[in-house]
Structures are given as C-alpha cells and as structure tokens.
Amino acid sequence: MTELLKILQKIMPKEMSALSRRYTLLHTIRLFQPIGRRLLSQKMRISEKVIRTDTELLKSEGLIDIVFAGMTLTEEGARVLDSLQELMRPLEELDKVREGVQTLLESQELYVVPGDSQNNQEAFKELGKEAARVLLEHLQGKSTVAITGGSTIRKVVEAIPFQKAPSPFPKLMVVPARGSLGNNAKIQANNLVAKMAERLQCRYRLLNLPDNLSRKSLDSVSQEPEIKEVFSLIRNADIVLFGIGIAERMVERRNLEPSVMEEIREKRAVAEVLGHYFDGQGNIVSTSCSIGLRLHELEQGGGYPIAVAGGADKAEAILAVRKYLRRGALVIDEGAAKRILALAAGSKTL
Amino acid sequence: MTELLKILQKIMPKEMSALSRRYTLLHTIRLFQPIGRRLLSQKMRISEKVIRTDTELLKSEGLIDIVFAGMTLTEEGARVLDSLQELMRPLEELDKVREGVQTLLESQELYVVPGDSQNNQEAFKELGKEAARVLLEHLQGKSTVAITGGSTIRKVVEAIPFQKAPSPFPKLMVVPARGSLGNNAKIQANNLVAKMAERLQCRYRLLNLPDNLSRKSLDSVSQEPEIKEVFSLIRNADIVLFGIGIAERMVERRNLEPSVMEEIREKRAVAEVLGHYFDGQGNIVSTSCSIGLRLHELEQGGGYPIAVAGGADKAEAILAVRKYLRRGALVIDEGAAKRILALAAGSKTL
DNA sequence: CTAATAGGGACTTTTTAAGGCCCGGAAGCG
DNA sequence: CGCTTCCGGGCCTTAAAAAGTCCCTATTAG
C-alpha cells in the first residue's frame, strides 16, 4: 500500500498534493460538521477559494452535502474517507514523525523521506534525491558550494541530474569543505567535488593535500597561494553541504592510528561533522588534522548549511550535534527520525 | 485494489485521467523504445505537446531516459510501470470489455460502468449515476424528455441531483413515454416523471390512463384533447430515456393474463422495450396495449435515445434489441457487458 | 549527399485556478 | 426587534499553467 503511494507520488507529484488536501478537507469536515468555507479555510490555513473549488468538486461527486448551515459528509463521503484513511496512514504517520523531530531539533528546514537508509539501498537513494532537490533549490544565485565526503554526500551528488550546456549556473563553483579524508577515493570530497561540478556544468577547485599532516607542514602548506585561494573560497561558501558521521565508524574508515580510536572511545565521541568529533552532549572532543572549514565558522557564518544523514544508526550522532543543525536545512530519513524520537523519549524518562 | 481506484476516481477525477495517460505513455514507450514524441503522439492519438509535458515530467522523475535516438524506460521506470499495471488492470480490463461491446453493438455512445447490478446494489446505483450524467449532458437546449418506468430508470431518476431554483432548464418538459404499466407505483413512468421534474425543477405532464385498455376505448381516449396534447409532446420528444426489460419478468410484473405469458413463451420473446416484446432475433412478437411512443418512431425519429440496462441477466435482452441501440446512447454495466461478449462468442461458434 | 526523425527552444493562445469582493439569507443574542 | 455572525453563492479580475504552433539543430539510414 505504501508502495503504491510512492508510485503515485512519482507519476503525478502535483496531483498528489490535491489528494492529500482533499483528504484533509474531508477529515476536517467530519470533525466539525456542519462547517462553512471560512472556518475551514482558517482551520486548514488554505485560501477560501481553494476550499471552495474542492468542496464544489466533492459535492458534485456526492461526498458532501452543502446546506445553509454548512457542509456535512454524506454516507458515501464517510465511507470514502475511511478508505482514504487507510491509504494515507503512512503519509500521515511520516508527517507526525516529521513534526516530532521538528519540535525537538528546531531546524530551520527539515525534510524527512520515507524508509531507512541503514538497511534499504532504495531509501538511501531517495535520501540523496531529496537532498539534491534541496540543494538545487538553494542554488539560485549562490556562487560557491562547499561539500564534504562520505557515502551519504556521494548519494546526494549522484542524485543531481546532469545539467545541459550552456551551464544554468555559470558562476557556480564547487569546492571541498575540507582536505581529503579517508582512503576510499570514491567517497573523498575531492572526487565528489569533481563529480558534482560535472553534473552541474560548473567550475570547481580541489584541495589536494595528503591526509593527517603534521601541524607544522600544515601551517606551511596553508601559506601556499593556491591553497590560500581555495581556503578563501571555502570560508566564503554560500552553501555548505555535509554529512553527519558516526564517530567510531569514521575513525575506522580514515585508517587513523589506534591511539586516536582510544581517544574517541575514552571521550565517548559519538558524532563526526566536518572533521570534528562530538560527545553525546555536543561538545567537541577532538578535531582531525585535516584542514578546511571549521564548525564555528559554519555556526555563525553566512554559508547556508545543508546537513544530510540517513539510517537509524545515525540518530545518536544527529542528536549529539543538534545545536549545530538549527541553522540551515536538515535532510534525514524515516529510520533516523523515528530513532531520534525514541532516543529523546528515552533520555527524558531517565 | 479496485476499490482504491474508484475512490481515487471519486476524489480526483481530473487527475486520474492524467494518471492513466501517463501510464499508457510509459507502456507505449516500453513497447516501442526507443521512440520519439511524434511517433508516440501518433500512436496514442494525443497532441505532441501533451506528450512532451508528460515526458518531461517522467524524465525529471527519472522514469525515462531521453537521448537523441528517442525515449527509453529506466530500470526504475520499468518497476513503476509494473506496479502501475497491477493497479490499472481492472480499469484496462473494463476498457477492453467496452471496446468489445462497442464493436459488437456499434452504439453511437456506449458507457460501461464497473460492477454488476444484478447482485450489487452499489453497482446498480452507479449505473443510474452514469446514465443521469449522460442525460444531463444531452439536456442542454433540449426541451422535452420522455421516460419509461422500471426499476432501472428509477435509479437514473434518483441519481439526478436536485437543481436549484431558478431552474437551469426553464423550458424543459418531462413526459412519460407510454401510458402507465404495471402495478408498482414506485416504478411507474408517471411517478418517475414527477420525481424527475421535481429534481430538474421543470414542468411535466402525465398520462393517467388505466392499464390494458381495450382497443376501442383506447381509440376513443386518444381523441381527448388533453391526451392528444401529451401525445404530441411524446412524439416530438428530444430525448427518450428508456430501460431494457426481460420479457418474462415484465409480463409477471405487469400482472397480465396467463394467455399473454403463454404467448410470450411460445414466441420465445426475450426482451421488452417501450411496450414491445422481442424475440432473440429482434423481431417484434407482441405489443402491449398501452399507448405512447412507438419503437419505429424512435428508430427514425429525432428524439435522442438513451437506453439503460444493467446486470448480466439483461445481456440476452440487450443483444436481442441491438439493432435499435445503434442510434443514441447505451449505458450498461460490466456484468451485462461481459455476458454480452460471452453470449456473442457462444453464438458465433454455434 | 539528402531526407527523415530525433529533442528542444521560443512564442502565442487557450484554459483553468486562484484571489477578492459583495450579496442575501438564516441563526443566535442582547 | 435589530444587530452581528455565520452560511453558500455569484461575479469579476488576475495569475499561472497547459496546449498549440513553428522552427531549430543534430544524428543517422539510405
């Protein structure tokens, strides 16, 4: 049943909003019948005219009665509403989950896609698509996008449709948010930058630095004119697209020394964002030696953050860095959202 | 599943046509891929622009690929199409049934509604609704409607929505197509005429004649000025709405003498339309003594016929009078339609 | 080469949705 | 009683989407 909804959503996205609107309309009418257009329009926060158009349709289909006192459901309308309720349940539930997470995290923009990326590749793909959509929406007029690496961001990049020449974003520039991390080339920021630029038909700059430089060579390299230029782009990025990682998993992936892992464990780091490790309270407990965008710059800076994370196992990490997610957009999936709510409920009762 | 379709059809009728169009589009693309817009537009008999709008939507959803050679389904598109096929099957099947009956009966207008009125009251109601819709569609500008009695026409009348004063059909006049028949007042033509006029907010005239008059008194009554006036209205009716009856059942219902029943049986009458009884070949074998519209008048006359019949058991009767159904609209249900096809196939092999 | 077919862009016309406003009627209330 | 506050419905204007039309370039089969 939920399968069907997704397909309908795919094949007639616009029309589906009419469906849910009319469903809510029927629902509200049942709740308050008899009720008139004005009140309905207030309660549903929809313009009166739209209510009117819809009610006229529903009346002509014999689902509602319209008399002087207001509108009421007919028997058939009640039956239809019941059947619709079955159909819409997953959609409504997802919306409730979204609401719950929204009040908890207070994100500026929150998107929750169905499914759980942890054990469903399809869902992971959809997460990427949604994030790509959000990104493209914010791209208008912006000129610099900084992105991190990671398998999640990779999904986002792969979900960006190829744009045609001539470029619709002629002034766009994509840069990695930080120096390269990890050894899996496919999910390195540099690689993703190139891929994204290819899809967006725009320019890009890379940060070709070896991993885990010493403090000293890091400082000296930072003085290189070319590097400095990229740094300046990064610091002035208009959009920062990043994933939220699970601390331990990131350490493993980056092939760091055992000592680092010990540190992570000892300090109970759970989340990783932009090279910083966080404990459950959101305190930075460690920062990897790569270079690039710093968190506090993101916190107050003008760059618009777009955070993406999917899968129930990411819930703890998302909660840990919640205070950094209030600005900007957050794109998660149902699995993560539900676990977030469960964890929050649990910690409240403790 | 078929339930769901009906509900969607109810709550978003316009949008559903887009759904079936896009479904057919995907289907056709799969069949002929790679294929271009022009060819598609030819094959589907849809303007090229519509194809273009739809394909752009489908492409943006990633269901099809568009390359120089034409359009092809993506993997996801194929999956979506398969799932849609499940959903659309009942709809497609009904359409095929309709096509089959259409080629068989060659009706000017043929409507087939889902379900079987014989054993489903809901379906019977829907049949009435569809017929009412057809009637209202043809009402524009027309001034006289003649209707018969019968439970089917009763359903049609009851499905006509109440119109508001001032009457949208000020010049409309409803008359019974024939004198009263049968003893069940609720389904007598006179009664239905009054009900219909009430709903349409229009004038009406009745034919208050006793049943089964002798030839002689019939002739004399026919000379009455008032009766003559109604006759003239009937003869010049712009629309004739009538049901198709099963001969034996009609005889029973009309409480006719046993001799009549014997005659019906002897001459193998199967159908009854407008007071005439027909055998399986469509020959008139008997005519009841009531008065009013004659069949041959309908056959060549200017009045637009709207015939309504539902239920598998009506199939034989419908087939018997098929030659009278080519002009005008025919509204039947799935049950009748399927039986019609089965009977036709059977008689062909004999 | 040419002719045919592909997608795509640009423009106009048509249709439909939305917005906004006002009207008369029924019900509740001082 | 008169007042306000609901109600649906009519009507006109504006805005946006869909459809229709025409023309363009690229690719490929013959």
TrEMBL record, chains A, B:
It comes from the Bacteria. Pfam families: CggR_N, Sugar-bind. Residues 92-342 form the Sugar-binding domain. Keywords: DNA-binding, Transcription, Transcription regulation. Gene3D superfamilies: 3.40.50.1360, Winged helix-like DNA-binding domain superfamily/Winged helix DNA-binding domain. One of its GO terms (molecular function) is DNA binding. InterPro entries: CggR_N, NagB/RpiA_transferase-like, SorC_transcr_regulators, Sugar-bd_dom_put, WH-like_DNA-bd_sf, WH_DNA-bd_sf. Belongs to the SorC transcriptional regulatory family. This is Sugar-binding transcriptional regulator. It comes from Anaerotalea alkaliphila.
